[in-house]
Design brief:
The chain has helices spanning 18-29, 46-56, 69-75, 81-86, 106-117, 134-145, 158-168, 228-235, 245-260, 267-278; strands at 4-10, 33-39, 61-64, 78-79, 91-94, 100-103, 126-130, 150-154, 174-177, 189-192, 216-219, 239-240. The protein is α/β, with parallel strands linked by helices. It folds into two domains: 4-106 and 246-278, Leucine Dehydrogenase, chain A, domain 1 (Rossmann fold); 120-240, 3-Layer(aba) Sandwich (Rossmann fold). The strands form two sheets. The protein has a six-stranded mixed β-sheet with strand order 2-1-3-5-6-4, with helices on both faces. Strand 7, helix 6 (134-145) and strand 8 (150-154) form a beta-alpha-beta unit. Helix 5 (106-117) packs across helix 6 (134-145). It is globular, with a radius of gyration of 19 Å. It binds NADPH dihydro-nicotinamide-adenine-dinucleotide phosphate. NADPH dihydro-nicotinamide-adenine-dinucleotide phosphate binds at residues 106, 131-136, 155-157, 160, 193-196, 198, 201, 203, 220-222, 244, 247-248, 251. One of its GO terms (molecular function) is shikimate 3-dehydrogenase (NADP+) activity. Shikimate binds at residues 16-18, 65, 90, 106, 222, 251. This is Shikimate dehydrogenase (NADP(+)). Residues 114-197 form the Quinate/shikimate 5-dehydrogenase/glutamyl-tRNA reductase domain.
Length: 283
Amino acid sequence: ISLDHYLVVGNPIAHSKSPLIHTEFAKQTQQAIHYEALLIDTSSGAFATAVNAFRANGGKGLNVTVPFKQAAWEFVQHRSERAKRAGAVNTIGFNQQGESWGDNTDGVGLVRDLTQNQGKSLTGQRILLLGAGGAVRGVLEPILAEKPASCVIANRTLEKAQVLVSLFAEIEPLSACTYDALAGQQFDIIINGTSASLQGELPPLPDNIIPAKRGWCYDMMYAATRTPFVQWALEHGAICARDGLGMLVEQAAESFYLWRGVRPKTEPVIEHLRYLLQQSVIT
Ligand code: NDP
């Protein structure tokens, strides 16, 4: 049988879990695909050259990760609404005319992990998002689509949070602030979209921002051991997803669905990845 080819591209890319995840999805749904990782150099134009070569060779679709999500946004000929708002594309496909389309599945991945896997509705909730980089920008539209009561973006660099708010200001209950300004407020759901956990750090959060016994926390980062944020959340009595692995697998499932029209089961793949992480088979 001939296999349809897919890629994940980025720099670095060696640690990407996407080949593993999509290969598991393909086995489970009996789709004949081959999925691998490709390192692209960061020189100008290298991304477009690589994607065009892949398409010319019959490639069917790509996932795009750091630092090429904006380049992918510029590259594609058609963009979904959520990709337009995110200003970034993580999934590329080609239509019957050979034209490229781009979507962004990161946000829907987070929302599905929270609402379906963890069973936490966002509707009517006071949400606090920490950080104002690409990860937070990517999840804003799908979070706001769940109709939270309010959504505050806190960031060390206030201007970056304000820029994100300005992208949505006309319709949404969205605001920006610094960490200091959080003192005295409480939030039902706190989502860490900073890269602080990567450095083993905790964003400078004031005490008492989690309501007793009914606060929820989520760290987008995944690691074999608890991140400082997850540790902090549990110490403050919050209900907390173990890590952001669910988001990762859910965004992949949405890409797989866009390409193949089939929805894989995510739970066994999340469990498999968590096991491999804990055994240090993957990092
Ligand atoms: P960026 O580099 O674009 O942004 C980093 C953000 O983190 C900035 O807002 C920065 O603040 C903030 N920050 C960094 N260090 C600290 C600190 N010590 N205290 C407080 N704030 C800090 O990164 P991304 O947005 O691309 O990614 C962020 C994280 O999201 C990654 O670590 C990754 O683990 C996670 N992620 C997870 C995904 C998943 O599928 N689970 C998908 C995508 C991302 P400032 O602007 O002030 O510098």
